[in-house]
Design brief:
Elements (H helix, E strand, L loop, with lengths): L13 E2 L5 E2 L2 H8 L12 H12 L7 H5 L4 H17 L5 H9 L8 H15 L6 H7 L6 E6 L2 E6 H13 L12 E2 L17 E4 L5 H18 L3 E6 L10 E3 L2 H11 L6 H4 L2 E9 L12 E6 L5 E2 L5 H4 L6
Length: 326
C-alpha cells in the first residue's frame, strides 16, 4: 500500500468510533515542533521555558502573561494561533466534527492555514489505501492554492507555493526575471506513480481540462468527500457547460465560482473575462437524500480561478450547500 502526505500529521492521530479522528497528545505536540515555533539562538528564557513546557505537555494551560513575556512578538503570535486552534479542537469530539462546525460558520480565531491543514488530514483519512496517484494529486487542489496556466486547450494547475519558491530561487540565481519560466513536472497517466515518492514536495502539475484523468480524479475525490461527511452516495460527472432551462441548484467550490454561478443563475450579465475564470463544471446526482423538490435533479458544481489565476478551493461549501432532505 502506498503511503503519502507523511508530514500532514495524519499518522499521529488517534481513532474514535467510525473512524473519527482524535487529536491526541502526539498530534498536538507536532505543532509545537513546527519551524514557526522552533527555538533559535536568539530565543529568550521565557520562550525556551514555554517551548519545553508545551512539547512535554501539549495540552498544558498557558496564561497570557507567559506569552506576553516572550521577547519575540512574532513568536508570541505564533503560539497564540496554535493555542487558539487547540482550544477550538477541544470543543469537539473529533476533527470531522470541528471541520463541519467551521463549514457551518463557526467563528475561528486562527489563520485559514489551519483549516487547510484539517482538510488535508481528513482527505488523507478518506484516501487511505488509494491506488491511483492521479486522484491523490487532484485532491491537493482542495487544500493547497494552485497557480493556473491555460494553453493549447490544457488547464495546468501547479502548487502556488512551489511556483513562488522556484521563481524566487531562479531570480536569486539571476537565471530568470519571470515566474512564467518556472518548470514544474507534469503528472500524466504514464508517470503518475512517481507521485508517491514526492507527495510531500507538492512539485507536480496536472491538467484538469475536460476529459483529462486529473479532472475525473477530482470528481472521484469529491464523491468520497461527500460520502465521508454526509453519508450520502453521489455521482459527480465533469461537463462542459450548463444548458438547463430547469437549472435549480448549484454550488461553487470556491468564492469566484460561487459569484459567477450565482450571477448566471439569476440572469445577471457575466462578461467573457469572468466567464473564462470557470475552469471546471460538474453535475452531481444523488438517488436518495435530497429534498423533495430536488429529487432526480442535478446539482451543478463549479471550480474557478480568481482574477490573478489562482484556485483557492473551499470544499466545505459542498458539505453545507447541498439540497439535503430535512
Amino acid at each position: 500500500m502506498n503511503d503519502f502526505w507523511l508530514t500532514s500529521g495524519w499518522h499521529l492521530l488517534e481513532r474514535g468510533d467510525g473512524g473519527r479522528l482524535i487529536p491526541g497528545a502526539d498530534f498536538m505536540a507536532a505543532y509545537f515542533h513546527r519551524p514557526e515555533l522552533a527555538l533559535v539562538e536568539e530565543s529568550c528564557a521565557a520562550e525556551i521555558a514555554l517551548h519545553e513546557k508545551l512539547t512535554a505537555q501539549p495540552f498544558a494551560a498557558v496564561a497570557e502573561a507567559e506569552l506576553a513575556a516572550l521577547a519575540d512578538s512574532d513568536a508570541a503570535d505564533n503560539y497564540r494561533a496554535v493555542l487558539a486552534f487547540r482550544q477550538f479542537l477541544g470543543q469537539y469530539d473529533n476533527l470531522q466534527a470541528a471541520y463541519m462546525a467551521i463549514a457551518a460558520g463557526a467563528a475561528i480565531s486562527f489563520p485559514p492555514l489551519f483549516v487547510e491543514q484539517l482538510t488535508q488530514i481528513i482527505l488523507r483519512e478518506i484516501m487511505n489505501g488509494a491506488a491511483d496517484a492521479m486522484q491523490v494529486r487532484a485532491a491537493e487542489i482542495l487544500f493547497r492554492a494552485q497557480s493556473v496556466t491555460i494553453s493549447d486547450g490544457r488547464i495546468m494547475t501547479a502548487d502556488q507555493a512551489t511556483v513562488q519558491m522556484q521563481a524566487g530561487q531562479q531570480r536569486s540565481l539571476q537565471r530568470s526575471q519571470s515566474p512564467d519560466e518556472v518548470q514544474i513536472d507534469i503528472l500524466t497517466s504514464d508517470n503518475k506513480d512517481e507521485y508517491w515518492q514526492r507527495s510531500d514536495r507538492f512539485d507536480t502539475s496536472v491538467d484538469i481540462a475536460y476529459t483529462q484523468p486529473a479532472l475525473d480524479g477530482l470528481a472521484r475525490v469529491l464523491e468520497s468527500w461527500v460520502a465521508h461527511f454526509l453519508e450520502l452516495s453521489v455521482r459527480i460527472t465533469p461537463m462542459v457547460r450548463i444548458d438547463d432551462e430547469n437549472w435549480s441548484w448549484h454550488v461553487g467550490l470556491d468564492s469566484t465560482a460561487s459569484a459567477v454561478l450565482n450571477d448566471l443563475y439569476q440572469g445577471q450579465p457575466v462578461d467573457d473575462e469572468r466567464l473564462k475564470r470557470i475552469l471546471c463544471l460538474f453535475f452531481l446526482q444523488a438517488d436518495d437524500g435530497f429534498a423533495d423538490q430536488m429529487k432526480g435533479r442535478p446539482v451543478y458544481l463549479g471550480l474557478a480561478m480568481n482574477e490573478v489565476g489562482i484556485i483557492t478551493a473551499k470544499p466545505q461549501n459542498l458539505l453545507v450547500n447541498l439540497p439535503l432532505a430535512g
